[in-house]
């Protein structure tokens, strides 16, 4: 089919804004927006992780049974998946800025709803609040793609890595603010567990303010010109199915999903595995800290490696690192705290390599509107399958063993590895813009 395609409303409006911008100011505006996205990622993840950390305790206390503990986390992850698909579609109509603002604002409402649920002791309301809070996480995750829009093709990996790096702050600060917030909640007559949601509301609220003030002009208007040149002039917009069958898109999508599933599958049950074999909270904290360090703190390195060596190679490196981590976790003896620390670090770093590189791959060879559609589908699948992996990991351990998780993880990595190898001739090392 041929003929000039009509640009989505938000991109059409952004073109008008871009026409009136001073070219000498554009680079400065892009830098400011990149660091704004970094700050939004940091603030949003701090609030979201605080909610996730305490959600298990809240649900178990309200429900009177540990079986309720995993429900808020699952609801939050499903909320993130829903947000990714919904917000990406909305962005094509209202723009990146308004889309991110909607997601963050819904997350803020979710924090208030969850805090209310804690006060009145309602599991259903807690799950609604957790799901809505997931919208803030979904919005922050989409921020990495906004950063990629702003960057030149050879710098997209670094831009994505910078935004993902912001989650390091949330991973460290979120859990450590809970005790302080609990004291604050107690001082005003609330249950201490409600304090975590004060943290959530405060930090997501700050992210809303930052997005409203500093994500100007519309990010689409600041997109690198290559994002608008990916589709030859006069070509009609391809169907979504056609986009998803393109080799780079298919490999990137499958790699994102597989990496997330394997990481979540093993990580979820590691604290329980350590506790059941006599390790104290200090060991659990060390292992999880090593894992989070590998996931987030090294993401700028993952981005630079993707830019230097190309996304396909770094996806391959990420898959290999994840496989090594899965094998090591399966072979580590029950008392092997050091080996599991190394395994969980590698699990985090392998995820980071693949996550950043595959995210960058979903920006190459696609028009601005096409990549927005594909990225929403990708993140929706990533987070919905992560929820399934989180719920399934306990069943696997109960029916088999912790080591089985590692073996299943290796098996799940075979599909993206096979796709990467079979399509290597169709995906150039330096992907076209």
- The secondary-structure element order is HHHHHHHHHHHHHHHHHHH
Supply the number of helical segments. Answer: 19
CATH architecture of the largest domain: Up-down Bundle
Which shape, going by the Cα principal axes?
globular
CATH homologous superfamily label of the largest domain: MFS general substrate transporter like domains
**What is the CATH fold-level name of the largest domain?**
Growth Hormone, Chain: A
The fraction of residues assigned to DSSP E strands is under 5%
Count of beta strands: 0
Distance between the termini: 22 Å
Average pLDDT score: 89
Please state the structural category. mainly alpha
Number of domains: 2
The whole-angstrom Rg is 21 Å
CATH class of the largest domain: Mainly Alpha
Helicity level:
over 70%
Contiguous low-pLDDT stretches (5 residues minimum) are none
Major beta sheet summary: none
Any overview of this molecule?
There is one protein chain. With 433 residues, this protein is mostly helical. The protein has 2 domains: 1-226, MFS general substrate transporter like domains (Growth Hormone, Chain: A, Up-down Bundle), CATH 1.20.1250; 240-427, Growth Hormone, Chain: A. Helices cover 80% and strands 0% of the residues. It has helices spanning 9-19, 23-63, 71-94, 96-120, 123-150, 156-165, 167-176, 178-187, 195-214, 226-229, 240-245, 247-276, 281-297, 299-309, 311-331, 337-361, 368-399, 402-412, 414-422. It is globular. It starts with 8 loop residues before the first helix and ends in an 11-residue tail after the last helix. The mean pLDDT is 89.
């Amino acid at each position: 089919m041929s003929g000039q395609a009509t640009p989505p409303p938000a991109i059409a409006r952004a073109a008008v804004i871009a026409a009136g911008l001073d070219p000498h100011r554009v680079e400065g505006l892009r830098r400011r927006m990149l660091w704004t996205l970094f700050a939004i990622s940091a603030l949003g993840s701090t609030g979201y992780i605080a909610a996730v950390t305490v959600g298990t305790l809240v649900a178990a206390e309200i429900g009177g049974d540990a079986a309720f503990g995993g429900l808020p986390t699952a609801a939050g992850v499903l909320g993130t998946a829903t947000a990714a698909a919904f917000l990406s579609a909305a962005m094509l109509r209202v723009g990146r800025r308004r889309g991110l603002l909607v997601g963050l604002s819904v997350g803020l409402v979710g924090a208030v709803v969850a805090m209310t649920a804690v006060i009145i002791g309602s599991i259903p309301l807690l799950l609604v609040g957790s799901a809505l809070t997931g919208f803030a996480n979904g919005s922050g995750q989409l921020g990495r793609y906004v950063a990629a829009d702003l960057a030149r093709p050879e710098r997209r990996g670094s831009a994505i890595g910078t935004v993902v790096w912001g989650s390091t702050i949330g991973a460290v600060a979120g859990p450590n603010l809970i005790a302080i917030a609990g004291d604050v909640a107690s001082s005003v007559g609330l249950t201490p567990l409600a304090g975590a949601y004060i943290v959530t509301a405060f930090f997501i609220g700050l992210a809303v303010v930052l997005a409203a003030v500093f994500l100007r002009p519309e990010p689409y208007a600041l997109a690198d010109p290559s994002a608008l040149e990916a589709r030859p002039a006069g070509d009609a917009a391809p169907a979504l199915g056609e986009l998803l069958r393109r080799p780079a898109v298919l490999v990137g999508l499958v790699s994102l999903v597989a990496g997330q599933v394997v990481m979540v599958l093993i990580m979820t049950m590691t604290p329980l595995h350590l506790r059941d074999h006599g390790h104290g909270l200090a060991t659990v904290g060390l292992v999880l800290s090593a894992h989070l360090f590998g996931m987030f703190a090294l993401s700028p390195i993952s981005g630079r490696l993707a830019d230097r060596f190309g996304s396909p190679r770094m996806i391959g490196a990420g898959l290999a690192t994840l496989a090594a981590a899965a094998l090591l976790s399966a072979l580590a003896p029950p008392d092997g705290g050091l080996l599991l620390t190394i395994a969980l670090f590698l699990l985090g770093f392998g995820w980071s390599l693949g996550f950043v590189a595959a995210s960058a791959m979903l920006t190459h060879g696609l028009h601005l509107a096409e990549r927005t559609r594909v990225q929403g589908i990708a993140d929706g699948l990533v987070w919905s399958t992560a929820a399934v992996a989180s719920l399934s990991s306990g069943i696997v351990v109960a029916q088999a063993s912790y080591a089985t998780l590692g073996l299943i993880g290796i098996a799940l990595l075979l599909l993206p590895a096979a796709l990467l190898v079979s399509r290597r001739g169709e995906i150039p090392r330096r992907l076209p813009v």
